[in-house]
Amino acid sequence: MKYFIITGTSRGIGESLVKQLLHNQDHHIICISRNEHNFVDIEKEYPAHISYFSFDLNEIIGIDHLFQKIFTLVDEQNINSIYLINNAGILSPIGPVEENESEEIIRNFNVNLLAPYLFTANFIRHTNHLKVDKRILNISSGSAKYLLPSQSAYSTAKAGVDSFSKSIHLEQKDKSHPVKIVSVYPGMIDTQLQTEIRSTSTEKFPHVELFKQLHSEGNLQTPDKTAEQLLELLYSAEYGAQTIVEELTLNDH
After folding, report:
1. Does the N terminus or the C terminus of the chain have fewer Cβ atoms within 10 A?
2. φ, ψ (nearest 5 deg) of residue 241
3. Span 13-69, pLDDT tens digits
4. Cα separation of 110 and 232, whole Å?
5. CATH assignment of 2-186+223-245, given 3.60.20.40, 3.30.530.20, 3.40.50.720, 3.20.20.30?
6. Which has the minimum average pLDDT: 52-61, 83-92, 197-206?
7. E strand or H helix that includes residue 53
8. Which residues have a Cβ under 8 Å from the Cβ of 29 and sit 6 or more positions away?
């Protein structure tokens, strides 16, 4: 059995990942999102196992307990691999830093940086003894490297994700059964984050017209295509050799 723990599964890339993984009866998908999502009808169509936890990643103090519950679902006698995909993310606050509300800044760092960090720590803690294939995929952003004004919280949090991914790689690389970890920039995708950017005023975000143009010209990738590329990366034989993956490409078969 392959186990997948995925955050942010109610929409966008996360929802697309779940739907694609449901095609295999040897998959057990553990979905985590703040908003409840009805996967019951979807599950009836496909043979995979699916479990759901309603959890707000801003409530970081509860993550340890959440993982205790998650790992009651893992059958250690019937597992050949286990994967964590830290997918959930938020963009707000957008605007000059002095205009950002403190609560929004804290929520951004909780969801985009501290939650993935704590998920990673708990994942490793609960799988240290497992002699199976173990992988973590952190969904980062080109904003971690290519900076724009008015996105300081988001860019800083994603840069932090890249940094801790590199650190965890150093900790794990010489272990007999290491956790392989990658932080990936998935590109420009037609998700809720892009919708939020386009609805921002020019006063708060001077580059908003560029994002509107990308959308109007059809230059945004679909969540389904992105999910397909992410899973190809996750399954690749060389996974983990490169900790930061800045470009997703889909191989022709």
Report:
1. C
2. -65, -35
3. 999 999 999 989 999 999 999 876 666 566 566 667 899 999 999 999 999 999 999
4. 28
5. 3.40.50.720
6. 197-206
7. strand 49-54
8. 4, 6, 18, 21, 22, 48, 49, 50, 51
**Does an H or E element contain 168, and which?**
helix 152-172
The catalytic residues are 154
The residue assigned the tokens 């983990």 is 240
- Of 240, 19, 235, which Cα lies nearest the Cα of 253? 235
CB contact at 8 A, 86 and 119: yes
List, in order, residues 6 or more apart from 56 with CB less than 8 Å away: 34
Residue recorded with tokens 């997703």: 248
Which tokens belong to 10?
Answer: 């109610």
Conformation bin of residue 144: beta by default, left when phi > 0, alpha when psi is -120 to 50: alpha
Per-domain residue ranges of the chain: 2-186+223-245
